[in-house]
Design a protein that fits this description.
mainly alpha
Length: 103
């Protein structure tokens, strides 16, 4: 698979897309925008499927780094930049756990 050969760059981008789409699904839900919410949930599902196909050890390392930042044990600049609230961070962690539990 070509994407697996691309390594960490593809994994990093996919993990960030997973986080953003998970957080945005919450945002759209709050705004009662089911169409946008469904789109964000679709993107999250696609990211999860893609991450399952990529190099498992690199995916695990990247997901652990993201979870550490959510728990306040690490730094993740894009989380700070978008200023996600606790509910959005929980949604991101939940999506990460779906990937982790099926690796």
């Amino acid at each position: 698979m070509q994407l697996r050969a691309a390594g960490e760059m593809v994994i990093d981008l996919t993990v960030r897309n997973l986080a953003m789409s998970s957080a945005m699904a919450i945002h759209h839900q709050r705004n009662s925008d089911q169409t946008q919410q469904a789109g964000s949930e679709r993107v999250s599902a696609r990211c999860i499927e893609l991450l399952r196909l990529l190099e498992p050890n690199l995916v695990k390392q990247r997901l652990e780094k993201l979870l550490a930042a959510i728990d306040g044990r690490g730094d993740e600049p894009f989380l700070k930049r978008w200023n996600y609230d606790p509910e959005q961070l929980m949604a991101i962690a939940s999506s990460v756990n779906v990937v982790a539990n099926n690796q």
